[in-house]
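**Backbone geometry record:**
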Amino acid sequence: MIPTIEQYEEFTEKLPRLMRDSYCKADFFLEKLNLKYSNIYRKLKDKIFSLAEVKIITQILFSEQVLMSNLKKSEKDILAGRIENHDDFMERLKMKYNV
């Protein structure tokens, strides 16, 4: 358990640098985190992001890994037979949203 906490602490220490070096602009992080300029810069300086904020930032910074993980989960679902016919799915959506 202690190594996990140490890894998390190390990751949160690197977070400001990762955000700065990313292709995303500060405005994008502000929008996704629903923060104001002063709040995000204080959090960057003091390294005090909440767990939920760290998750959002991580998904933004490592979007390719998130996508690959989701694709692998999808492949497992297909192999396990957890799929739904497109027409059936569309019909269910139409009924749900009264379209």
Notes: The chain has a mean pLDDT of 92. Helices lie at 2-21, 26-33, 37-46, 51-61, 63-79, 86-96. The chain has six helices and no strands.
